[in-house]
């Protein structure tokens, strides 16, 4: 039986294409602390500590994780209200301050010009946040608007990675099988979503430094099965070659 050929590239957005996580988590921390205060819980988060605890999750997923961690509940109406407020805060920050990950624009340019692969963005974040991020850094020219998928917005029931639903949805929408796709992810939750969807994985640790980079490289490689882990986007051609060799 012939092996599948790679036809489709899936890119996570936050801290994979765009350096958006720290900006977003500043806004998220403000609302998380408001919720904790309202529940008479003394703990408080900063943007970095919230990022460390919940990287790769969208805000809805983070709030549900907080509910579990601190044993409290939010009504659907309360959760929806916080999600709406968070989105507005984050989009405002991204529209002003978002920057691309180092080297990614050059690689996307080459891929787009080659016309060899279908390219899509597959994110846990709300669609308007993803659109704001890629537009601010000029990446919207590389992606058909119909090929930007959000686990928080694009699915009948909102979810978040590591649930593979958004990857499976993207495959269905594009009419491709998981085996002919490649996912690029920077977090355990995102990489796990790709793994559970049976999509070959390239890891990316560029925004991390020191021990965090070493640890995430290990997680992506050993726990999530990444074929290749990049430290810089200039490695992408080699990473893609390794994936194509692995499935040949």
> Which percent range describes the beta-strand content?
5-15%
User: Could you report the average pLDDT, rounded to the nearest whole number?
Assistant: 94
Q: State the helicity in percent bands.
A: 40-55%
Within the largest sheet, what's the order of strands? Answer: 3-2-1-4-5-6
What is the radius of gyration? 18 Å
Distance between the termini: 11 Å
Compressed to H and E, one letter per element, the order equals EHHHHHEHEHEHEHEH
Number of strands: 6
CATH superfamily of the largest domain: HAD superfamily/HAD-like
The CATH architecture of the largest domain: 3-Layer(aba) Sandwich
| Count of spatially separate domains | 2
CATH hierarchy, class of the largest domain: Alpha Beta
Shape: globular
- Reported by name, the CATH topology of the largest domain is Rossmann fold
Protein name: HAD-like domain-containing protein
GO molecular function: phosphoglycolate phosphatase activity
Pfam family, one: Hydrolase
InterPro entries: HAD-like_hydrolase_sf, HAD-like_sf, HAD-SF_hydro_IA, HAD_sf, PGP-like_dom2
């Amino acid at each position: 039986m012939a092996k599948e050929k790679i036809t489709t590239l899936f890119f996570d957005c936050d801290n994979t294409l765009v350096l958006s996580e720290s900006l977003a988590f500043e806004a998220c921390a403000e609302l998380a602390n408001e919720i904790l205060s309202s529940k008479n819980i003394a703990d408080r988060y900063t943007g970095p500590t919230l990022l460390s605890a919940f990287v790769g999750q969208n805000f809805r997923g983070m709030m549900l994780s907080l509910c579990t961690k601190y044993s409290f509940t939010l009504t659907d109406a309360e959760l929806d209200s916080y999600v709406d407020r968070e989105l507005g805060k984050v989009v405002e920050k991204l529209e002003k301050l978002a920057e691309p990950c180092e080297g990614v624009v050059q690689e996307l340019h080459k891929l787009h010009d080659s016309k060899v692969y279908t390219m899509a963005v597959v994110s846990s974040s709300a669609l308007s946040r993803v659109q704001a991020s890629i537009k601010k850094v000029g990446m919207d020219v590389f992606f058909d608007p119909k090929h930007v998928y959000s686990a928080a917005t694009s699915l009948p029931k909102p979810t978040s990675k590591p649930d593979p639903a958004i990857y499976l949805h993207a495959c269905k929408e594009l009419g491709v099988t998981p085996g002919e796709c490649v996912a690029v992810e920077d977090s355990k939750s995102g990489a796990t979503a790709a793994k559970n969807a049976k999509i070959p994985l390239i890891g990316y640790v560029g925004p991390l430094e020191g021990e965090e980079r070493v640890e995430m490289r290990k997680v992506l490689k050993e726990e999530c099965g990444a074929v290749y882990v990049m430290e810089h986007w200039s490695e992408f051609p080699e990473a893609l070659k390794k994936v194509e060799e692995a499935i040949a």
